[in-house]
Design brief:
With 222 residues, the protein is of the alpha/beta class. The chain has helices spanning 10-20, 35-45, 64-72, 87-95, 108-119, 127-133, 156-166, 171-178, 182-196, 201-210, and strands spanning 2-6, 28-32, 48-54, 78-82, 100-103. Strands 2-1-3-4-5 form a 5-stranded parallel beta sheet, with helices on both faces. The radius of gyration is 18 Å and the shape is elongated.
């Protein structure tokens, strides 16, 4: 799969490329620093499986760039990557045809999970947008999920483990970070899978991402 990565900050591109190359075997990344360069690359190659666009890079003109690319390539999965956490930006991007809106504060492993979710045909809406659309303040991470959430029956410890699964952490790392034995982590995983009606970690992470879980930590750079 060929991936188009367009961002005017070379440091951001350098940080993301190694993660993007792990999306699937043989994945390759074509970089662009402006929207006109990204649009030219899309027209030249024509076989991109995914496009990632910075919201405020030169030439985007707000969401005009997204609308233009969506019109020209209607089936191309497009994800907006942005340093903005303004709900208005995320909402307008989704309504303009983006398949997902990813804050740059998100961990690299979590971004991978989000991109896999998008490639499976889902849309990714960041948790802060749910709060905005419902007209309420952002929820504290310590608050339990809403009753209707698929995560409502998880214990706090299972929630901790699920958040680390979203980040791609293996059992050994989870055990060390939470001061547990690996056998205890495995027991929690079995219970969690049963409650979520999933068969493995990948399916559990997918449920978590759709429910708005974005991992335990965030980084300014990936």
């Amino acid at each position: 799969m060929r991936i188009l990565l367009a961002d005017d900050h070379a440091m951001v591109r350098d940080g993301l490329v190694p993660f993007l190359e792990r999306l699937e075997p043989g994945a390759s990344v074509v970089e662009a620093g402006t929207f006109p360069d990204a649009q030219s690359a899309a027209r030249t190659h024509g076989d991109f499986g995914l496009a990632i666009l910075d919201l405020y890079m030169p030439g985007m003109n707000g969401l005009e760039g997204l609308l233009s690319l969506r019109s020209e390539f209607p089936t191309l999965p497009i994800v907006i990557l942005s340093g903005s956490t303004k709900p208005e930006d995320a909402l307008q991007a989704i309504e303009s045809g983006a398949n997902g809106f990813v804050p740059k504060t998100m961990r690299g492993e979590t971004i991978l999970g989000v991109l896999r979710l998008v490639l499976s045909g889902e849309k990714y809406i960041p948790p802060f947008l749910f709060d905005y659309r419902e007209g309420g303040p952002a929820h504290s991470p310590a608050q339990p999920p809403a009753t209707g959430s698929p995560l409502a029956h998880l214990t706090p410890r299972e929630r901790d483990i699920l958040e680390m699964i979203v980040d791609g952490a293996p059992n050994k790392v989870i055990a060390r970070e939470l001061n547990l034995q690996e056998v205890t982590v495995k027991a929690h995983l079995r219970n969690m899978f049963r409650k979520l009606t999933v068969a493995n970690r990948t399916e559990a992470a997918r449920v978590a991402l759709l429910a708005g879980v974005s991992g335990r930590k965030s980084l300014q750079h990936v």
